[in-house]
Design a protein that fits this description.
The chain has two helices and two strands. It is mostly helical and about 100 residues long. A two-stranded antiparallel ribbon has the order 1-2. A hairpin with a 5-residue loop joins β1 and β2. GO terms for molecular function: cytoskeletal motor activity; structural molecule activity. This is Flagellar hook-basal body complex protein FliE. One of its GO terms (cellular component) is bacterial-type flagellum basal body.
Length: about 100
Amino acid sequence: MNINSFSPVVHTNSPNNAQNVKEITPSDAHNSFASALKNAIGSVNERQIASDEMTTKLATGQDVDLHDVMITAQKASVSMSLTLEVRNKAVEAYQEMMRMQV
């Protein structure tokens, strides 16, 4: 099977309930995955920055509640842990594919 000839089909519902068929090219799939990955990493980065800002505010004596700082730090920590686990699984899957014999 030639992977370049693979063309998934997406069904969308139109307002009149008739189904439209749109083919997704490999380029579209690549761009979609790349933008989803970029958005996810950007979200993790934003949470890390928010955590740093809250910690700095607490350390400099600004008006911020300790529980808000801790919640923000925990959200950033969980986001980073999830990102690392997803990365580890992706690397593991890639390594498994490289071990396959053709």
